[in-house]
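INTERNAL AUDIT FORM
Audit reference: QA-55
Scope: verify that the stored structure record matches its stored sequence.
Auditor: D.O.
Record contents follow.
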Amino acid sequence: MSQTLSRPAHTQGAISRIRLHAHSLSPSLKQVADHVLRDAETVLHQTITELASSAGVGEATITRLCRKLDFAGFHAFKIALAADVAGRDTAPENVSGADLTGHTARLVKQSALTLEDTGRLLDPAVIEAVADQLARAPRVDMTGQGNSGLVAQLFAHRLLRLGITAVAHTDPHVAAVSISTLPRGGVVIGLTSSGSTIDTVQHLRLAQSHGHYTVAITHRASSPVTRYASKVLFTSRQEEPLTDAVLDTLMSQTLVLEVLYAALLARRPEAAAVLRVTAESVVEKKY
């Protein structure tokens, strides 16, 4: 006998769920629900902080609405909302042949725009201030989840090549332990395009509570992670909720860190010698 499997909550329509539960929503939850129905496309690109502000409620109210609609949280709600807004199959586009050539051209054009936009967002004063802290830090902890974690690992490696002790943990529990034992004067850099990645926000909050210098690299100025950052560096692009397109995010984050690296070189007079030593350390690893 065949069985009918229920669809996971994140694949069911957010708008239909709002309408289904409309009669049972409290005034504050209905206020948010009505706002979502009026401007779903804008909400799709907002952080929980931004939605709370535009709807005139607290962030906890947003979370309560998501739970009321049987979503695990705001991100799961936005995934369902994205499917509603798109109104179509959101599977990744398959391209080949001539289409692949056109797709490549679009990626190249978009990549160039992303880099230009990110460059315009960089504040030289903030870059200089962060570079000053990094230059004298006894250790730098990098934190980021998913794709941001990959960029964090890349920059930690770049710092090591300069002789700066740096770590990037992929396990959020290990990252929290590491931050809690960071020496005085240490720096914690958190990467999160949305600014709302829970682990990254919690890591910066922990670092701030221990008196450490914290840096957030994010696309969203109004997001939870910025509350716990001594300095914020902005990127120009954020991933869409229902796509696996990550090139813009990876490039913009990497550009910010490469500019920071360049500023750091000027503060490390021994950089050339250290780079030579670290390069020679792996010479036997290549033919």
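Auditor finding: record pair retrieved intact. Residues 195 and 218 are 6 Å apart (CA to CA).
Action required: none
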